[in-house]
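A favour, since you know our structure tokens better than I do. It will help me judge whether the discrete encoding reads sensibly. The space below this message is yours for that.
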Amino acid sequence: MKPTKGSHQLRKGRYDAPGYFYVLTAVTEGRKPLLEDPYAAQTVLDAMRWLGENGQIELHAGVVMPDHFHVVARRKENPLSKVMHSLKGYSAKHVNAALGRSGSV
């Protein structure tokens, strides 16, 4: 996936350490409203919950909007990149299955 213009600026100076709270956000490709489908939205919420229940993060809040989601969590041992990779990978696979589509979410 090609980074959006200026997205590298968001990572400049980011501090990624266990025990800190983070607000994590991800958007759908092209801001398509793929998550407006209730099953797709529930899939993302279930993935967030799974990460919390399995000790990947300490989940405090999560919200799914039609074209993006937010997570408020305290980081445990895994780096944010691994947490987001797990969350987005699982969600993309199941959202695509729910919507009968393939490709990037």
Remarks:
- The radius of gyration is 14 Å.
